[in-house]
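ok so for the tutorial part 2 we go from a plain amino acid sequence to predicted structure tokens. step 1 is just haveing the sequence, like this:
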Amino acid sequence: MKCRFWIIILLPIIWFSCQTSEKKGNKSPIVQSGNPVLEGWYADPEAIIYGDQYWIYPTYSDTYDKQVFMDCFSSPDLITWKKHARILDTAAVVWADSALWAPGVIEKAGKYYLFFAANDVHKGQLGGIGVAVADQPQGPFEDLLGKPLINEIIHGAQPIDQFVFKDLDGSYYMYYGGWGHCNLVKLNEDFSELIAFDDGTIYKEVTPENYVEGPVMFVRKGKYYFMWSEGGWTGPDYRVAYAIADSPFGPFIRKGVILQQNAEVATGAGHHSVIQIPGEETYYIVYHRRPLDQTDANARVTCIDKMEFDEQDNIKPVQITHKGVTKRLLR
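step 2 — the prediction. this is what the tokens look like for a chain of 331 residues:
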């Protein structure tokens, strides 16, 4: 009887210890997210903080004809994630007949905007970058324009992978582009159209060396950190590189790769976003990668790891992990 009793008691203790670790000299458990943080195949994650919640808006990663809706996820602590299903689908976007992907999100004046790519646009085809709006972060989102915001192929950039950025002066810009080209455009007050820059142009090409897709921008210590994905999204060498500039217009001179595959963890680590804890030097990189036992192009999972800087303010290479990040509430 005594042996059976101790087997029953030990099993839950062993399971719990797999989810936590202990600080040396302190028995308080350290709770970690683990990677991946979302259940199922999800890619191209756009992460953002709204109020006291973290949000992730990813691509539902499946074959082209099944990628016709978007889910999002919220968390109070980076550990427990709640799924909000079908916040947008092609039924709500009359001009989109297939494939929604790579959302970009932002809040403005109490409205929540979701920019998305729809249809695999080539010259002469309908599709490109659209805008949807909702009264709450989890939607449901409605198509704002009834047509693409950007349909044309300008400077060789396929209209996909949009990232919306609020500059220090309150201006709203959008970086976007596939096929190895990146454009910068300026948005009007309600995101319903593009407006000209001071020189009268609408589209500025800002493509850095080795750029493929997936642009991201953030400001730190007055410097503009521009990031992007390189390599092929279906292969193991997908990765993230970056540049630092003095303005949102660049020039963006490539500094190097900071996120890539690890033969012991995962392959194809790329197409990311960045979260900063407000008022702190605490940064997280949210990205997708392919598990080592998967070769299918769409077998991608969303993960989170710490992102840090060196004394020269360069981004340190990110160590992709199975552990993920520690619990962190927003105050």
